[in-house]
Amino acid sequence: MNSTDVSFLDNFFAPQAQDVLDFEKAFLSTKIIHHQQQEADLRLLSYNILPEYDSLNISNNKALVELHVSGTRVYGYDKSPHIISNETHVFEVSLTSQGWRITYHISNETLEQDFRNYYKKNGLDINKTKKEVLSQITTDTIVRRNDLNNGITNNNMESTVINSANVSILAYANSYNRSAFVNYGMQWHNGTNPNYNVLGNDCANFGSQCLKAGGAPDDKVAPSGSTHPDDYKWYYDGQQRYSWYAAQGLRYYLRNNNGSSSNIGVKAAKVSTISSVYEGDFAFNIDPSNDRATHTIPIVGSYYSSNGVKVDLWIVQHSCSPSYGLLSQVTLTGRTRELIHISGVYK
User: What is the pTM of this model?
Assistant: First the structure.
């Protein structure tokens, strides 16, 4: 589709279903814009759908129709997989003076469910819902394009402006190699590197190793006047150095290292959503009773829904199961979660 004109839907809905028609028109026009963004920003090469009839139940002048729709998307990036979606659509139709017309429709399509959730949250305000969903779609598309385009290995600290969406994104940076972080994590998530001692429960030790593989430099300098200078130092010496081997120590270092007088170490910050983290970043399980980290989780990738929306993160870890899987699979019993984004390193 190259137009957001969805007036043709008027021919398919019953007169008494005006509110349903208004919703469907708003959703479909939003979906069209979503696909147009994917074509432009994600190099969508093909989008194929195959609808299949599942069931039909007729009772007097009403009927219930169920369809199964499978689809594939192929993006023009070497690392982009073929994305397969499977959806179920249910239509309630009634016999009117104009023939059979739709009175209600619902599906398990991710984008539609998101749209409905915003619609309910906004008190059935269609225009506000469409505006908010389009804003979220734009953000998610930018994030995904950035991931797929492998911008994560840029070696400068300039702010890159994506003109099509008028949003600034900080380039990932200053010789921090996220691909090397991921490669190390994938190599050793199910084993231990003989070049390193096993320290403590080993989750933060493993996370520090991934960070080191990504190019984070040894930081042996603490800011002058520090009450606990070792908390600001990060390096491996085979011993149980707090910032290297302890989850809370690594978390504290990442959040508080603002660079010594020599600008050494990692530049990082706490973020609030998964759309703000990428491979080479971290998640931590936090004990809310004392605000201390109890587990370190290196992030090695992003997981997207069939509509191209980031919904989860691929992770690796030591001391917990699975050693490789999705962040949502890591139990949170009695814990909260904190995300840390690394924007570069001081050297």
Answer: 0.54
